[in-house]
TrEMBL record:
The keyword Signal applies. InterPro entries: Beta-lactam/transpept-like (IPR012338), Beta-lactam_cat (IPR045155), Beta-lactam_class-A (IPR000871), Beta-lactam_class-A_AS (IPR023650). The keyword Lyase does not apply. SUPFAM superfamilies: beta-lactamase/transpeptidase-like. Its EC number is 3.5.2.6. Pfam families: Beta-lactamase2. It is an enzyme of class 3 (hydrolase). It catalyses: a beta-lactam + H2O = a substituted beta-amino acid. Residues 1-26 form the signal peptide. Belongs to the class-A beta-lactamase family. Residues 51-310 form the Beta-lactamase class A catalytic domain. Keywords: Antibiotic resistance, Hydrolase, Signal. This is Beta-lactamase.
Length: 336
């Protein structure tokens, strides 16, 4: 992101992100909320819907399938970024540190860095990699940050230290995506989208379907809706990072460019959303994962954490996204 745009985003966030105490004095109006979410769950067709909500005004929480595990896809870039910003807070990294990437570092499926790569080496700062991973969901940026963070085990251990036991990071994108798609281990040429599409076209449908079924049953790289909402609530309250680093994290999330038809489509005009999406490649008309998790700041200044996961749905992609917007709308209407 351009430095001026970054400064502007952080300035806006500083005026809209409010930190509330964690006392629990009230609850969502669960009578209508539960009925509405149950109806939306039925609209997933072959899939299931997971929801985690936290009202940051009073700490009240509500969930649907809150303790079930859902594949995160790129939502897992949130804890990876948390590990990186923790390292910055602790002086082990600097946001202005430069990282040189070569063709051997390019990752699979979705990566603007790979798409735009020219020459043999390209240099990014840690901040730029975080922006690419969170705002653009860039898999090359994410895999690079995961290595800098010490690997999946280090990220999951950090989550556990913060009391977020329902979320885990187990694989890089290079490891996770081929396995979920039914491909053999990562091949460097798959950093090219055309080559990846050709490799997928060569797979028998039965292989792709079996891989999807296995992926949906896998506990690796999953979260519960409660854990995802808990992570964002702790972030908003300043319980995970220093105040300056919290503002930077929220500022980057406010600039997310993916998922405009998800949480953002369900909030009132004048609201602000700091969020992270996750999307799996469709397999034979089924979406293994369509997700969005974020902090919504309403025009009044009140904040709510919304974490929504749609797993294994055979509904059209636009309908899966509409479900997330509808959950968001229902959650806001259920606030006391």
């Amino acid at each position: 992101m351009h430095p001026v745009r970054t400064l502007l985003t952080l300035t806006i966030l500083a005026s809209t992100i409010l930190i509330y105490p964690a006392a629990a004095h009230a609850e969502f109006r669960t009578d209508t909320l539960a009925a509405r979410i149950e109806a939306l769950d039925r609209e997933t067709g072959s899939g299931r819907l997971g929801v985690g909500l936290v009202d940051l005004k009073d700490g009240s929480a509500w969930s649907w399938r809150g303790d079930e595990r859902f594949p995160m896809q790129s939502v897992y870039k949130l804890p990876i970024a948390l590990a990186i910003l923790t390292a910055v807070d602790e002086g082990r990294l600097n946001l202005d540190d430069t990282i040189a990437l070569g063709r051997e570092d390019l990752s699979i499926q979705w990566s603007p860095i790979a798409r735009e790569f020219k020459g043999e080496r390209v240099t990014y700062t840690v901040r730029q990699l975080a922006e690419h991973a969170l705002q653009l969901s860039d898999n090359t940026a994410s895999d690079t940050l995961l290595r800098l963070a010490g690997g999946p085990g280090s990220v999951t251990a950090l989550l556990y230290r913060h009391g977020i036991a329902g979320m885990r990071v187990d694989r890089s994108e290079r490891e996770m995506q081929p396995e979920a798609l039914g491909l053999p281990p990562f091949q460097p040429e798959w950093a090219n989208e055309t080559a990846l599409a050709e490799a997928l076209n060569d797979l028998p449908p039965s292989v792709r379907r079996a891989a999807m079924v296995a992926y949906l049953a896998d506990v690796r790289d999953t979260t519960t809706p409660k854990a995802a909402a808990h992570l964002l609530a702790k972030l908003a309250r300043g319980e995970l990072l220093s105040e300056p680093m919290t503002r930077i994290f929220l500022g980057i999330l406010a600039g997310t460019r993916t998922g405009g038809s998800r949480i953002k489509a369900g909030v009132p005009e004048g609201s602000a959303v700091a969020h992270k999406t996750g999307t799996a490649m469709d397999v034979l008309g089924t979406g293994p994962a369509v997700n969005d998790v974020g902090i919504v700041t309403l025009p009044s200044g009140r904040q709510i954490v919304v974490a929504v996961f749609v797993a294994g749905s055979d509904r059209p992609p636009a309908e899966r996204e509409r479900l997330i917007a509808s959950v968001t709308r229902a959650a806001i209407e259920a606030l006391h």
